[in-house]
Amino acid sequence: MGKPLIVVLGAGLGGATASFEIKAAVKDRADVMVVSDSDAYSFVPSNPWVAVRWREPEAIQVHLPPVFAKKKIGFTSVGAKRLHAGEKRLELNDGASISYDYLVIATGPDLAFDEIEGLGPQGHTVSVCQTSHAAAAADAFDAFVEQPGPIVVGAVQGASCYGPAYEFALILDTELRKRKIRDRVPMTFVTAEPYIGHLGLDGVGDTKGLLESELRDRHIKWITNARVAKVEAGLMHVEEVGEDGAVKKTHDLPFGYSMMLPAFRGVPAVRNIEGLTNPRGFIIVDKHQRNLAFPEIFALGVCVAIAPTGPTPVPVGVPKTGFMIESMSTAIAANLVAVLEEKEPTAEATWNAVCLADFGDGGVAFVAQPQIPPRNVNWASSGKWVHLAKVGFEKYFLRKVRKGESEPFYEKLALHVMGIRKLRF
């Protein structure tokens, strides 16, 4: 009888780092294989830089096959077509199948651009959700600066990732000022959040005050409780919703360039599997990152179902930050070791958040422990140091992936940005 096979579905932030940590934990007691739809790992937090050509795509990517080979982790970039959970089988896009003993789902999200007419790269707005999207956004920005006009940036109803929207709006402001054309570009920030700085987390520290101040100082208007009804070429139709859920005002916003973050949902390969996913296709897990209907399946990252922090006039999701994802990876690795030893899982993730939002000439950092209030740590700060920290973070994390290192990092980062101890990048 051969060794048990642990399959990790996904090779992004969660999947790549989880596979390194799982392999280091289980050692020779099981084989580990990663299934992805790409040979490249992309450092997604740098995508906003790609969209204004502060980075080239190749600079924030790692070619994965040699990394996994060095770590003796199997790998395919064929991609998954459908999970057959009842059969413990993963059907691949080329028609082949992989039978697994344990499955770790770390797919990230499916981007639901199609839920709003005209939204997204196939419509009239650009995206920084994927590095290929950001590269296309850079081409669109090059064309825009030849004929400047209004810009609209933000996140639509149901979105669960808000930091990159603020980051990109303020990076655009910085770049336009460098080009001496900011005075020709009216900017509006449109968000489903009930207030600026909510971030899907009901705020962290004074993110409301910090981000409102940044937008105000940079002459960026904003609309909160916003629902995007439709996007046409050069025109966004936005409904501003009141506390009672009724539309209190409509806005027709002209734009020459727009980036709007979409809502997320589970990827098609795992969607609509009874007992595994919720109606949006996110994986249902217990406190040990394990699905109860299929106990051989674990999940981490953006694909995991998490309830919102509370009711809001417009639907607002909860972000899954790198700190949380890394903690989920550590818990899953420990729990897989327990299961292989025929013990019950006991490890639990600590759902904390640390974020560096870079604006090119400054930024905002926050730490939330736990991520959802009430919290033990509720800290936010701003300054030029955030930009330098983000640059160092990028270099460190890409080096970590290139080496296939499994050591957790985000807790160190949280301590560093709060000034509790110094971390060398």
Sheet with most strands: strand arrangement? 5-2-1-9-19
Number of strands: 22
Secondary structure: helix percent? 25-40%
* Multimer state: single chain
Mean pLDDT: 94
Major sheet characteristics: 5 strands, parallel
Taking all Cα atoms into account, the compactness measure Rg is: 21 Å
Strand percentage, roughly? 15-25%
- Regions with little confidence, pLDDT below 50 for 5+ residues: none
In short:
This protein is of the alpha/beta class and 425 residues long.
Overview of this structure, please?
The protein has nine helices and 22 strands. It has helices at residues 13-26, 47-50, 64-70, 131-146, 163-178, 207-217, 322-340, 385-403, 410-417, and strands at 5-9, 31-35, 40-42, 61-63, 74-76, 80-84, 89-92, 97-99, 102-105, 110-111, 151-155, 187-191, 220-223, 226-232, 235-241, 247-254, 257-261, 264-265, 297-299, 353-358, 363-369, 377-382. The model has no long low-confidence stretch (mean pLDDT 94). The chain is globular and about 70 Å long. With 425 residues, it is α/β, with parallel strands linked by helices. A five-stranded parallel beta sheet has the order 5-2-1-9-19. Strands 13-12-11-17 form a four-stranded parallel beta sheet.
